[in-house]
Amino acid sequence: MKFKARLSNEEIKGRLILIVGLAISIAFVGTVFVLLYGLLFVVQPLEQAPNDAEAWKILSPLTLTMSGVLAGLLASNGLKGNQNDKDKRDD
User: Which of 19, 28, 44, 83 could form a disulfide with 66 if both were Cys (CB 3.0 to 4.6 A apart)?
Assistant: First the structure.
């Protein structure tokens, strides 16, 4: 039986960041599409129901938070990756 080489800490971290980023991206895109579908294709009454108003109050900060998390995740990993590459080139 031949064993695969173990992953390094950087490879594990990279895969974890990819999985988290994909999960948040899918949730964000799904939320946006559901909101757009509800606005465009579902017949809305002239007066907004109280339940719908509360749902919008919850979903608005949720989508803003998810977009902020994605931006922070991409920005922080881009900076760390460039710094590590720079250190490797200097050696």
Answer: 28
